[in-house]
Amino acid sequence: MTLTDTDRTVHVPVGPTVPSSGALRPLGLGEVRITGGFWADRQRVNAAATLPHIEHWLEREGWLGNFDAAAAGALTAENRRGREFADSEVYKFLEAAAWQLGREPDPQLEERFRDVVARVGAAQEADGYLNTNFGRPTQQPRWSDLEWGHELYCGGHLFQAAVARARTRPNADDGLLGVATRFADLICTVFGEDGIRSVCGHPEVETALVELGRVTGERRYIEQARLFVERRGTGVLRDIEWGRSYYQDDIPIRQATVLRGHAVRANYLSSGATDVAVETGDVELLEALGRQWANTVAHRTYITGGQGSHHQDEAFGDDFELPPDRAYSETCASIASVQFSWRLLLAQGDPRYADLIERTLYNVVATSPSADGRAFYYANTLHRRTPGEPADPETVSPRAEASLRAPWFEVSCCPPNVARTLASLDSYVATAGDDSLQLHQYAPARIATTLGNGERVELTVETEYPREGRVAVRILRDALQPWSLQFRVPSWATGATLSVPGEEAAPAAPGAVTVQRLFREGDEIVLELPVRPRFSAADPRVDAVRGSVAVERGPIVYALESVDLPDGWDDVADAVIDADDAPTDDNGRVTVRLGRRVEQETRWPYGPREDDGRLETAEVALVPYHEWAERGPSSMRIWIPTT
Amino acid sequence: MTLTDTDRTVHVPVGPTVPSSGALRPLGLGEVRITGGFWADRQRVNAAATLPHIEHWLEREGWLGNFDAAAAGALTAENRRGREFADSEVYKFLEAAAWQLGREPDPQLEERFRDVVARVGAAQEADGYLNTNFGRPTQQPRWSDLEWGHELYCGGHLFQAAVARARTRPNADDGLLGVATRFADLICTVFGEDGIRSVCGHPEVETALVELGRVTGERRYIEQARLFVERRGTGVLRDIEWGRSYYQDDIPIRQATVLRGHAVRANYLSSGATDVAVETGDVELLEALGRQWANTVAHRTYITGGQGSHHQDEAFGDDFELPPDRAYSETCASIASVQFSWRLLLAQGDPRYADLIERTLYNVVATSPSADGRAFYYANTLHRRTPGEPADPETVSPRAEASLRAPWFEVSCCPPNVARTLASLDSYVATAGDDSLQLHQYAPARIATTLGNGERVELTVETEYPREGRVAVRILRDALQPWSLQFRVPSWATGATLSVPGEEAAPAAPGAVTVQRLFREGDEIVLELPVRPRFSAADPRVDAVRGSVAVERGPIVYALESVDLPDGWDDVADAVIDADDAPTDDNGRVTVRLGRRVEQETRWPYGPREDDGRLETAEVALVPYHEWAERGPSSMRIWIPTT
Asked: ipTM above 0.90?
């Protein structure tokens, strides 16, 4: 889609988030293309296996059929299938398919996409309302259960699907954007200044309404998002067993200091509030969100980037309450966290936001799907004490337990959320400014864009990262004027260097490093990141992993998996490590020397301090955390106790 | 109640558990009387404040009124009050009142007791069925929801109330025993060999049926309990989100190796299975239960004796999964654990069962009620990171959170469970054999009983335990023949001594120590227990408290509470302790020297290992854990990180 400005053509980026202002302009699918490596592999599996897998299960479970029954006037409370938010999984599938079609045409997928859109659209009611769970005879009335009904949440996912389609196929005649705007118009009437003065129990519609406003130019949607953001935290929803903080209705957003409550809700809400702050120029709100992000990262985030310590309410715990063995770290929370960080990065430009995105992508988003793309983790524990049962590939899992990657869940938010994220991942790689281009994520890629000053930039990124630390940018086009190329230097990358043609490699401190020059075709700029394995310890206030270390290598967190233990060592619980004995590294294959405690007797486990007793030791390979549980049931731990 | 044997009168003990055989015979309320000290104080508050408090809330919440509405034929699904198990709280109140009336007559309480019994009895249906939640027009049919309906569970509590009344007032004309047996007869018909081949989702009826069989001589009830025990674990209940282990329907009881699933359910079931094993002479089952107890204590029990690591499903975690900050440690689970340990103690005689009972009573059961007996903890966390909100004494708490003692809960199992336990606590103090008497719990007491061989024994126990370690037994009556007096020596009591008249004090190793002699009136036998404060560390496999110590003194676990920190130290999260710097003790007032970390910046909390940085130190008083949160909102921790 192109908009004609006064004197030059401005490309609207093809991606999920296109703010009207901010420190950085995102580069969309047409400007960045991941061409190989870690993420391209996963994008291939996503397109070839995960999308058909999701469509199969949506059909099989009847969640698509709900729309047909609604269109036929035959849907009732009794025959509707799935949970109250089942519609949203259909919309996330549509969004994922739209991004994938935006990456590469696929007539079969295009046909399936249009078919699903038609079935969805047929279920829309005359006034624009669209939800299969409310409003029909025998069903609850519309808007009668804002706490748990997820009507606005489902609407938000519909809008995001429509945005994806509008950005990737602006002239499509499938009607999806019309379906979305008709429902959005109804929502603005029902929940506007003079309407129901409340919000959805599950934030999501806020960020979606802003984006729908951005794509359509309809300011009313952004204003409605602002109303939702301002109302929340004033006690508009019912108090519940877990407290109003569960859905962030405890404190007005601009007064909060840290994310709390349900981790997915908290991050979607923060994303939407950031969008509202950017579109309304609300500096106070934006700064409050930045502080909340910083406190959440410093006090409530796992080493994997995962968030959410409680199984009970899928929620953040208190500061430093980060037990690895009860980590919930929901896949969707990590995706929502990436969205929040990305919005702050675009607004403020601070590379630490991209640091967290990288960590979260490699260690949570990449951990959820199996290598074949047909099974998923819902929760991503950092410590599994007993080998899990493998999930039946033909059965819906009732459990969001950390023990298994399962093909589908009763609450199946995570699989389509992973799919839409992978299908749009190219758009998180780089941004541009008036005379600058920023590389945030390192993958083999081709980038071609026009900077704000009209300068045309084309380059490739060549790298084996994260297996190797070399990131080489090759300029494909002579510059007409100098521009600057910025590389993120991850916070762990002490000792990084940057080299430009004709100069010696220079140290590049963690943060960002910039080269400004009149680039020539063929110039190669090389960032060298030290991706050696390293031990990391936690802030001493993280009680749950005191006296333990984790092994990281570049952005990758490693894990000890019981299938890698020597014969006779059957339990990761017995392993200890000497933190003065550095890991060895063979091109990403990391091994450590572990000790194993001699078996202890069955007795009261508290008393005078004792040492570890006799230890036997062995060299044991660690596995990248995102690859764990691919070789059958296993116990696993990221944090290993030190001797 | 007395039964005439062939040539002498045998007293049936007046207590909740009276096995027909076993290593030890319990001494009931008529034989043991706690006369002062820690537990007598709590029994006084229980009678004066807690029992009226419970009756008030049962009336106010309409849980008693449900019975009136049922009797009037006016009860419906719509107007019934409370959760599905609300009836059971009425029955536990009756049981508590019955034990209290057995301890000391109280005409007013007697009248209230009879009034409640009459209201309950009036609701019983013609065929004996009694439950206010099922079977009426608009309600679900009887026995239609065995997983969650709690019908048999409620019946079990009814039976236990009737047993308490029958043992304390064998000739009462209130009709409670008849109400119980009519319902029990119906259950035996409906769930017998030819009936519904299933069990209750919440075990309880098993132990209650055995005791009802013991008190009535009706073997059929014991046989029904045996059927319930044998059926469980064979997959007779539905699979649910948390798995069938939640209600122990995953593995047959005799094949299990450790308690698992919902901690209250697991312990009630184990109690009932022990009763069945004893009454049917099932040695294999009894040994299996002993092994499960040992593994559970060694691998799945908190230092307080509390059990249950998960908030989500109120359940045990895996072995060594014992996070102090997410300890659920439900009050009812600790009471059920005391019941299980007590039954094994009676069956097998091993003093370690009494060790766990003592620890659990002092550190969980005594922690739940407030000093005034009108507010309760449901969950008993070992680490509270943020000061809680005080609970409104006029409001039902929707939350079983660890933050507050609350007057009443939507699920209010714990208050009446504490009440019935304290009212019958005298019966857990001592047991007898043919020619022996065993002291299991140390409190000022008067004991008078007849041993199995007919020898009459009368003695007093004088002690300030647990504040002081001296336990003096004074013999009040010349013996006709030698008998033996056994003292439990707690596992922590290294250095204990025992002295008898005319001999030097002799070492008494942890376990038990016995004096056998021809006791004379006035003999004083003195056990000296070393109740100095001590540091305890956990088995290194308990990840969550690695590198930390707890302070214990005798059976009492101490805690650091933020209200005791010096000015400027506002958070227990910053405190560290030098474990080589012994606590000081001033007659039970324990102080330690703590260090406090200098504030750290807000940054990514994982990286290279660092030391604690600069510390400032101060002497800080600890508080017995059961006394915490009596001085306003406070953060608290039992486990303190070491420097």
From this structure: yes
